[in-house]
Amino acid sequence: MQKTLAEIAKIIDGRVIGDGQVVIRGISGIKEAQDGDLTFLANPKYLPLARTTKASAIIVGRDIVIDDIPVVQTDNPSLAFSKVVGMIKEDLKPSAKGVHKSAIVDPSADIADGVGIGPCVVIEQGAKIGKNTIICAGAYIGQRTRLGDDCLIYPNVTILENVSIGHRVSIHAGSVIGSDGFGYVQVGDQYIKVPQMGTVVLEDDVEIGSCVTIDRARFDRTVVGKGTKIDNHVQIAHNVRIGENCIIVAQVGISGSTTLGNNVTLAGQVGVVGHVTIGDRAIVGGMSGVSKDIQPGAMVSGIPAEDHKTWARHVAHFQRLHIYVEEIRHLKEQVAALEKQLGKKHVR
């Protein structure tokens, strides 16, 4: 990227205070920034860093002016900086068009205009790829799988048969969509596999992180709703239904046939048992274990997950347990002394 500060300000609807012709060549945090970098200041408590940073310019709030360094005043510095980062990220995204000579594309596959298919990609019989979708090196697209327009499939992603993916979906490296659900029937001492005949549906504007596994349903569909964002190393089991605009953070595991409403947040390393419902806008704290339904709007934490404030009180008591033990020991000694004293008086 190489743009003047005035050009960037126009993109983020900001106002330049200082030299708008400063050339910006990169972005960085306020501590790490060097000459030519653009940084941002969202929290006023970090204002002293703005006076020592080596950055060439800073994105700030509407009421902040800093001596000796150009600034771009905006309503939301964090959001504005994110837009600049996104612009640079967009420039770095894979942009190949056409089919690489090493790719294997079945003649029956339907490939729309503007599609880019990278080295060693395999696209199976009956697959359909929408306009301007990019499939990077080593990815696999199974039979009769459908990808919408403007999708980005990163290297070594595996999308198995009969999966349906909407528009503007991105799937990061190493993820597997449509693997078999974990279904077995115990017969004596053996486990007999239950065929998993369903599918996976990823709706529009979903983003899947790296090394995520989403299992196909046993008969129907495993669904990830529109606008949902899933972090790295997440496991989503068969027949799970995730609503729209949810946030699923790293290392979450969701067991089969569980339903998440819209705008649900599962923080890192949350585990969810099967066949429960988590209501709209519920928040589950990190490392919690969900063992029963959670009501809409609730905030829960702990194992098993309970009201967050109740859990916080329990944790506070646990941290004071050694004090309680000492107090109980002291009280027992006092009671024993009183009993001994009262016993002697009774004998008299």
Please specify the SSE layout and strand pairing.
Layout: E1 3-4, H1 5-11, E2 15-17, E3 23-24, E4 26-27, E5 37-40, H2 47-50, E6 57-61, E7 71-74, H3 77-92, E8 98-99, E9 104-105, E10 110-111, E11 116-117, E12 122-123, E13 128-129, E14 134-135, E15 140-141, E16 146-147, E17 152-153, E18 158-159, E19 164-165, E20 170-171, E21 176-179, E22 184-187, E23 190-193, E24 199-202, E25 207-208, E26 213-215, E27 221-224, E28 229-230, E29 235-236, E30 241-242, E31 247-248, E32 253-254, E33 259-260, E34 265-266, E35 271-272, E36 277-278, E37 283-284, E38 289-290, E39 299-301, E40 306-307, H4 308-319, H5 321-347
Parallel strand pairs: 4-5, 5-6, 6-7, 8-11, 9-12, 10-13, 11-14, 12-15, 13-16, 14-17, 15-18, 16-19, 17-20, 18-21, 19-24, 20-25, 21-26, 24-27, 25-28, 26-29, 27-30, 28-31, 29-32, 30-33, 31-34, 32-35, 33-36, 34-37, 35-38, 37-39
Antiparallel strand pairs: 1-3, 2-7, 22-23, 39-40
Describe it.
- The longest helix has 27 residues, at 321-347.
- By secondary structure, the protein is α/β, with parallel strands linked by helices.
- The protein has a twelve-stranded mixed β-sheet with strand order 8-11-14-17-20-25-28-31-34-37-39-40, with helices on one face.
